[in-house]
Amino acid sequence: MAVLDIVKYGDPILRKVCNPVSDFSNLDQLIYDMFDTMYEAEGIGLAANQVGQDMNLFIIDIAHTEEAVEPCVYINGKIISSKGESPFEEGCLSIPEVTFEIMRPEFIHFKYQSIDGEWHEKEIGGLLARAIQHEIDHLTGKMIVDRVNDVARLPFKKQLKTLAKESKQRLNNLA
Fold first, then answer.
1. Within 13 A of 40's CA, how many CA atoms are on the CB side?
2. Kindly report the CA angle at 79 between 74 and 82, in degrees rounded to 5?
3. Are 39 and 65 in contact (CB under 8 A)?
4. E strands within 61-130?
5. Could you give the CA distance from residue 147 to residue 157 in angstroms, rounded to a whole number?
6. How far apart are the C-alpha atoms of 146 and 137, rounded to whole Å?
7. Three-state SS for 98?
8. pLDDT tens across 66-101, in order?
9. Alpha carbons 166 and 12: distance in angstroms, whole number
């Protein structure tokens, strides 16, 4: 198991719609490494593209909250429907030290595959529903900065510009 580098704001992979997973045979190591990475960064969710992988896969662990759900792996997930709406302060491992109040549906009907490739459908609410929506945003090229207006982004303009510049430099160094 290893801690992976978390891709930061400004990296193009965070703006890409991720490819569906079709081969489930070699995901175990990536998933273990993603959990290590998420725990090291003290997050509750992590999408594959946040560690540079172009695949529709994310993990969530909110076991330390009052909802106490087991750690989960979601593959090829899709929100079928949603209802309600509530605000909540959200952060993102790809945008460190930046938080925004984000309006999201309170309940979702979610369809996904598990690590064994089996399809599941569930009605989900609370923090788990919010975390799923946040990670689905990642896998479809959206970020929390896209869910707020210019006025809300203004206090973080310099941080976002710096992160984007650092991401560009990192990509140039890899080329």
1. 12
2. 135
3. no
4. 72-83, 86-92, 95-104, 107-113, 119-125
5. 15
6. 10
7. strand
8. 666 789 999 999 999 999 999 999 999 999 999 999
9. 13
How much is the pLDDT for 1?
67
CA distance to 9, 27, 38, 119, 120, per residue, from 92 (Å): 10, 23, 11, 28, 26
* The token pair that represents 88 in the structure block: 């909540």
**Token code pair at residue 26:** 């070699």
Give the residue numbers marked as catalytic: 135
Per DSSP, 107 falls in state: E
Q: Give pLDDT tens digits for 97-135.
A: 999 999 999 999 999 999 999 999 999 999 999 999 999
Question: Which single residue is written with the structure tokens 């790809």?
Answer: 94
Name the one residue in this structure whose structure tokens are 């160094």: 173
Q: Which residues contact 8 (CB under 8 A, 6 or more apart)?
A: 94, 95, 96, 163, 166, 167, 170
Structure pTM?
Answer: 0.94
